[in-house]
Amino acid sequence: MEQNAFHLQMRLDHVGIITLDVPGEKMNTLKAEFAAQIAAIIAEARRDKQLAGLVLISGKPDNFVAGADISMIDRCQTAQEAEALARQGQEVMASLAALPFPLVAAIHGACLGGGLELALACDARICSLDDKTRLGLPEVQLGLLPGSGGTQRLPHLIGIQQALPLILTGKTLRAKQARKLGLVDDAVPQAILLETAIERVKKGKISARVLPMRERLLQGPIARQALFALAKRQTDRKTHGNYPAAKRIIDVVRIGLEQGSRAGHDAEAQAFGELAMTKESAALRSLFFASTAMKKEQGGNGEAKIIQRVGILGGGLMGGGIASVSAINAGLSVRIKDIHLNGVNHALQTCWELLSEKVKRRYISEAQRQQQLARITGGIDYQGFTQRDMVIEAVFEELALKQQMVREVEEHCQPHTIFASNTSSLPIADIAAKAQRPENVIGLHYFSPVDKMPLVEVIPHGGTSEETLVSTVALARKQGKTPVIVADRPGFYVNRILAPYINEAMRCLLEGEPIDHIDRALVKFGFPVGPIQLLDEVGIDVGSKIIPILQQAYGDRFAAPDAFDAVLKDGRKGRKNGKGFYLYGSHRGQQRKADPSLYALLGIKPQVKQSAAQIAERCVMMLLNEAVRCLDEEVIRQPRDGDIGAVFGIGFPPFLGGPFRYLDQLDAAEALNTLSRLKQQYGDRFIPCDALENLAQQQKKFYIS
């Protein structure tokens, strides 16, 4: 029998407190069966003939309602089933909005998706000022749109100009931002949240919020038409037509404003049902389920040590980034060691800049910035390292130097101290080869910029203990990262699939294809940046160190095109020294221009000969083929890990679900034919791997659908 998630407490002043607390779950999520429970709890409250109104509050410590239960959508087999689910949600919200007495949402923690739609159906919303409080409609990130009236109520509450970007991007708001936009009526300390909501109930039903004059003017036909046209242009430019939910959101919001609420709700439910059946939404939901499942996994059978104090070796770009996520995200004590004080100061400056950006955006106060920065200290020796639970090295990619770091940490730290190497290519077993306690040595490969990239590769070598493995996975999660465990093989997983992708882009360049044409081809395919711009961002010199290691391990399919040597000899390292494939200085973001002098350096005359689709096919097929090899060689444990690694590590298009989801969508036989054709055109590097051939012959897929 289904346990009730809603509980009513009637106060002596005739204000009812409805507490939502889904049994047996850490977070509240909305389920289809709650419709009857909500109706029953409202009916129970109405037995009080003097009922003044109701407050809806969560019984969970850190969330109001985190959204609808996504598995409920995933179980739908047809668009009609998903549409019916949306209509049921709309009916529940409509019944709450129509109550003759005030209903006030008291929001603390996550109030997202269906949770915010529930709050929007209330007469008023009061939220806590706690940093955990977030409000938003992130359905677009699952290839969907809000299906319980959100596309209709939000524009009416805060205006089209404010509402449309929130629904199109899935952006979440903090309490003060939500109050400023008019999304909530007040934001107060958590200690007085319930009391404030009760007082709001006692004021009775209040007429709907009047929009500011500017927003009212935008409701007019001419202004509205211009606004929707602009939204469509900006969305097309950003999504390249790869995310159908964005277009449907614009259409549905427009219908509601032009044809009325009933037509808008009908359009919303129909669009929700159709989007739920798209391959893009299925792929995005698969990533959601995968990342959610991975958050619950330890990575091994040991018991994790509690890591409170971390040491960082190297104060460069990576060291500073690792220090920041350790101190700011994880709240750990951090001690940095560098051979020069300038290195330590650089790392501290990195943390100061990240915290100052938070102060600027009013996420934290200046006092909180000082408090968080105080967690980080540094010096040029091992003073302060005696009690470190883990030391993470981010020094140069030289094996002898990293082995020296292991030796020094074993001399200056405790026997239990974990040594984690941020190497991007060197075997962890080699780094641990001369260690006294090799069981404490592990790889922990971050991606640049560390504060923004969500992935980290965790690489145990043959002698790494289970305790070290699970402790490292736990630390990575505390830092806000998604850890993927990969085998100790050259290039690990992400760099191994990235190298042939970038190499193929370089070959296109040497054939005369313009730099920006190559990059635009892959952005159109769905990557956030093109491969050549990515190489500039990562560092051309970094790429040049990884490629020889991969070529030695796996053969000539990893051989670097001649362009690498010529570019490096010209002193071009990429963005880090302001000299790469692109011009730097005043040029920023997507408008950055390719450096025309590079063509003369490479002895080519740029000319578009291949279509964007042909260039994307070449680069992506190299990546896919290598991903299958990694799975076959057990570099990754399962296809899910390979998909998360590619999407979170190099920005593989999320709407495709990752390399393995995409291969299932293509069909292994079709991928085999494409690779065979490319082999005939461009050479043996496109030879399909044995595992892909076997999959095609057996007519199997990576995932059981």
Keywords:
705 residues; alpha/beta; 2-enoyl-CoA Hydratase, Chain A, domain 1; Rossmann fold; N-(1-d-carboxylethyl)-l-norvaline Dehydrogenase, domain 2; 3 domains; eight-stranded mixed β-sheet; six-stranded mixed β-sheet; 30 helices; 18 strands; 50% helix; globular
Note down, in words, how this protein is organized:
There is one protein chain. This protein is an alpha/beta fold. The protein has 3 domains: 6-277, 2-enoyl-CoA Hydratase, Chain A, domain 1 (Alpha-Beta Complex), CATH 3.90.226.10; 309-485, Rossmann fold (3-Layer(aba) Sandwich), CATH 3.40.50.720; 494-634 and 667-698, N-(1-d-carboxylethyl)-l-norvaline Dehydrogenase, domain 2, CATH 1.10.1040.50. Helices cover 50% and strands 11% of the residues. It contains 30 helices and 18 strands. The strands form 3 sheets. The protein has an 8-stranded mixed β-sheet with strand order 13-12-11-14-15-16-17-18, sandwiched between helices. The protein has a 6-stranded mixed β-sheet with strand order 1-2-3-5-7-10, sandwiched between helices. A 4-stranded mixed β-sheet has the order 4-6-8-9. Helix 6 packs antiparallel against helix 11. The longest helix is centred in the last third of the chain and has 21 residues, at 612-632. The protein is globular. The model has no long low-confidence stretch (mean pLDDT 93).
